[in-house]
Description:
The protein is an alpha+beta fold. It has 7 helices and 19 strands. The longest helix has 19 residues, at 101-119. Strands 3, 4, 5, 10, 11, 12, 13, 14, 16 and 17 form a 10-stranded antiparallel beta sheet that branches. The protein has a single domain (4-378), classed as Anthranilate synthase, CATH 3.60.120.10. Strand 18 and strand 19 form a beta hairpin. It has helices at residues 4-16, 101-119, 141-151, 205-222, 260-267, 278-288, 360-378, and strands at 21-25, 33-39, 45-46, 54-58, 67-70, 74-80, 125-135, 156-162, 166-172, 175-180, 183-194, 226-231, 235-239, 242-253, 275-276, 299-312, 322-334, 338-341, 345-354. The ligand C=C(O[C@@H]1C=C(C(=O)O)C=C[C@H]1O)C(=O)O is lined by residues 127, 129, 174, 189-192, 244, 272-273, 336-337, 350-353, 370. This is Isochorismate synthase. Residues 105-370 form the Chorismate-utilising enzyme C-terminal domain.
Amino acid sequence: MITSEEFFDKLRFQLEKKLPFVAYKKPSTPTGEIKAFLQSNSETYKILNFSESGFVFAPFAANKPKFLIPAAQSEFLETNIDLSEIDKDFRNSSIAEIEVETARKQHVALVEKGIEQIKKGIFKKVVLSRRESVKLQGRDSIKIFQELLQLYPTALVYIWFHPETGLWLGATPETLLEIERNRFKTMALAGTVKYAGEMEVVWGQKEKQEQQFVTDSIMENLKPFVEKIEKSHPFTAKAGNLLHLKTNISGFLYPESQDLGKLISVIHPTPAICGLPKEPAKNFILENENYDREYYSGFLGELNLKKEIKRSGNRRNQENQAYASIITTSNLFVNLRCMKFEEKQAVLFVGGGITKDSDPEAEWVETQNKAETMKAVLLK
Ligand SMILES: C=C(O[C@@H]1C=C(C(=O)O)C=C[C@H]1O)C(=O)O
């Protein structure tokens, strides 16, 4: 464990050298434990079959390369930051006036077109998104990462750099897949309202249905691979300035179905970020959004990392010694509430689920609310 000053200095140095790195805090470690992989050479590593070990960064489009920072070619860092003094609630930023009218018209027209297709029976749900640029005014990316960490203690907060992808930051509330031996966890997250100081929400039919689509699709797609699968009731979960409807899904995989690549290909992209049925919704997105999502709504995270588990010895062992076993874990997240850092601007990516009951103006407002997650650290 190194000091947090050393940790952030090392990230800055790595960025200056333009070498790949990732630093992140997992949602399960609200105490401020941050990790990083700093690649020690300038090679480009890509995922071939998901048997690799390291940190993966994958785009929305399945046919584009997925990049890897391999554990074996990296320096691994860990530190702790003090989150205790930080105001845990979303801080309102004075959001600058940005040209919004054209963006609003475009997004409303896109959503209207999506609803038309749903009414024609082409698909039942589609997730439509847009980009928004914010001037950076010389703000330092590592500082912004530190602020994201403090503002969103229950998200997967990350900064990723690779010469092939550029510099990305995010604070995502959504797990794609967590695997430890044959145990897995995932979630269905959809439906959004703005947090107004109250966790009690009466969810409308539209939100309940769009979230149910996600739950049903994940349960159905995982069925051939699982020995046992369970789901929670949908509940309200906070993510920064927003509330979502969430169902936790977990269980055990058949020992023979632990081919991670195969599992990912059946669940990703879920209807939380693409649509239902998957293919026509994906085609509509690719043909109509009019921009490249790149890594937004792709996935990222720890892939096949070795973890030491300490257990006390069994009763027959008279000395009752502790022994350790090494297991492999993967912890992948959907890349949401994210932004790409360019020289003078940050490009934000935001979207929302559209069903037959969607109101295009309300969907526009939802994307504005989602953009606030990132604007809170960009505009100050
Ligand atoms: C698509 C996004 O978020 C997803 C869509 C949601 C919705 O439609 O309500 C909620 C959570 C996420 O699954 C995004 O943040 O850009």
